[in-house]
Amino acid sequence: MSSNTESFNKLREIIATLRAPDGCAWDRKQTHKSLLPYLIEESYEVVEAVENENYDELREELGDLLCQIVFHCQLAEEEGKFNIDDSINDISAKLIHRHPHVFGEKKDLKPQEVRDQWEKIKVESGEKESVIGGIPKSAPALVKAFRFGEKAGGVGFDWKKPEEVFEKVKEEVGEIETALEGGSREDLEEEIGDLLFVVSSLARKLEIDPERALNRSLQKFTLRFRHIEKRVKESGRRFGDFTIEELEAFWQEAKE
């Protein structure tokens, strides 16, 4: 038995012990639903570690995420539904089935061709009724917008060039201006949504992850706004005592 297998089985045994009648009261109390906040939190912490390019953090956070996965599988095993071996076997079979260019007749496919093949196989195998199915309803809207565009593009329903999407962005901005002039709040909300959807498609065509791009902008905003807060605090005055021009000057300082 390899050390990798031993360490994995040790984790399984620890979780099972915690869930045992003489284990931990907190762990015995948990359910799939009660663990969801922890699963989501650990997933975001993995993302943050990757964004920070911090491998010490990534090592730790992946372990925490793995713990959540094993915990859910332990619960399912206790309920007689499935165990972690079933989950591992399922994903192994799925990966082989969706990579015929590797495990079947060898083909040298480009990354986008692999994505298109993946979506085509899912539809043909009856795994989902719609090309755009399979995206969790609970996923962030920006993530869903990106994935909807990606999946539709996989069957040919897409713009050919980024420039075409940019023209659509300008068109949507114009529709927002029209809604501002005489439309209802519902019209304005719809047009704002259309613009956000198209912007996510522009990012996709430019091979940019919109979620990551937005997070980077938020980080930049945070740093600059904290500089404004620092300057206001140093002045001994309140935010309301400053004009927007003065606050903008602090913002420009932060950009230097």
Verbal overview:
The chain has 12 helices and no strands. The longest helix is centred in the last third of the chain and has 26 residues. Among the domains are: 82 residues, Helix Hairpins (Orthogonal Bundle); 44 residues. By secondary structure, it is mostly helical. The radius of gyration is 25 Å and the shape is extended. The chain starts with a helix and ends with a helix. Helix 3 runs antiparallel to helix 4 and helix 11 packs across helix 12. It is 75% helix and 0% strand.
Q: Radius of gyration over alpha carbons? A: 25 Å
Query: What characteristic shape results from the CA principal axes?
Result: extended
As a percent range, the share of helical residues equals: over 70%
CATH class descriptor name of the domain at 3-84: Mainly Alpha
Query: Main beta sheet, described?
Result: none
CATH topology of the domain at 3-84: Helix Hairpins
CATH superfamily of the domain at 3-84: MazG-like
The number of helices is 12
The ordered string of helix (H) and strand (E) elements is HHHHHHHHHHHH
Protein topology:
Blueprint: H1 3-19, H2 25-29, H3 32-51, H4 55-78, H5 84-97, H6 100-103, H7 111-124, H8 141-154, H9 162-182, H10 185-205, H11 210-235, H12 244-255
Helix pairs in contact: 1-4, 3-4, 8-10, 9-10, 11-12
Main traits of this protein?
single chain; 256 residues; mainly alpha; Helix Hairpins; 0% strand
